[in-house]
Amino acid sequence: MVHDHHFGQAEPHAGEKRTRVVVILTAVTMVIEIVAGLAYGSMALLADGLHMASHASALGLALIAYVYARRRAHDQRFSFGTGKVNPLAGFASAVVLGIFALMMAGESVHRFLEPVPIAFDQAILVAVLGLVVNGLSVIILRDRNSHGHHHDHNLRAAHLHVLADALTSLLAIFALMTAKFFGAVWMDPAMGIVGGALVAVWAWRLVKDTGAVLLDRQAPPEVMLTIKNAIEAGRRFQVVDLHVWTIGPGYRAAIVSVVTPHPCRPEDVENLVPDDLDIAHLTIEIRLTASGVIR
Fold it and tell me: Which stretches of 9-90 are assigned E, i.e. beta strand?
């Protein structure tokens, strides 16, 4: 019997609709800022519009990942479904986020060495507009359904992109206000470096988390121990090999090899595995001990 391995990926994901809303919101704001920048000769507006374009691209990648995973969910070429499309998109977004952090820091250092005149009122207006749009996007993309060690990495990556934008706008407002009223022009590039450092930390954490899923890293030790103890509790089976890894947001696969002195069915072992560990695909190997005794 051939099992279906889509694990619910064929159904629309909660994060897909929210990401689509934010993509539209970001794209509209981007167009308005670029058109206004060109029409009114404002470099501040034009620069922020182009900056938003980079995040619109990243958010678009997240949306494409959702759609691709859903439409290819029943494709038999994917051994465990399309669940890993989600962390793959998250990993790619994390790399883009890291590049964005380096660009922020690099431009800030350049501004330290070669300061440029700042149109404070216009720049503050742009920063406030960016903060409002990205603040709304942060609320929309907040992952309300993640639990335990399971996260929608694609949604998390999109959330971090708009959070980074919101942080940039907030730091810019603080720096520009300080520079305008207290003459501390150096605060503008200083806040750029601070923002770049924070974004780099977020990007690195996302790279580690998504990379762990893509490389089939073992489940946390407490999950492994829970499965082992549950199977061995009745002293009927001994677990000799155990692999548990994440194959998509909210579900895992597991391979369990046991030895036993008595003939049994795989279902006898399967029924011992706790239901709350999100094991969506379980493979069981049973070997009889030659001595008939479990040590």
Answer: 79-82
Check residue 255 and report its DSSP letter: E
CATH homologous superfamily for the domain 221-288: Cation efflux protein, cytoplasmic domain (3.30.70.1350)
- Which of 212, 278, 251 has the alpha carbon at shortest distance from 81? 251
φ, ψ at 243 (rounded to 5°)? -130, 130
pLDDT per residue over 64-116, tens digit each? 988 898 888 888 888 888 889 989 988 998 898 888 888 878 888 887 888 77
Tokens of 8: 């619910």
Residue 175: both structure tokens together: 């720096």
Count helices and strands (H / E) in the chain.
8, 4
| Token duo for residue 238 | 């001994």
What is the token pair recorded at 235?
A: 């002293």
On whether the CB atoms of residues 270 and 284 are closer than 8 A, the answer is yes
- The CATH number of the structural domain formed by 14-214 is 1.20.1510.10
The domain limits of the chain are 14-214, 221-288
DSSP state of 78: S
Task: Record the pTM.
Answer: 0.76
Amino acid at 93: S
pLDDT tens by residue, 180-200: 888 888 887 888 788 888 888
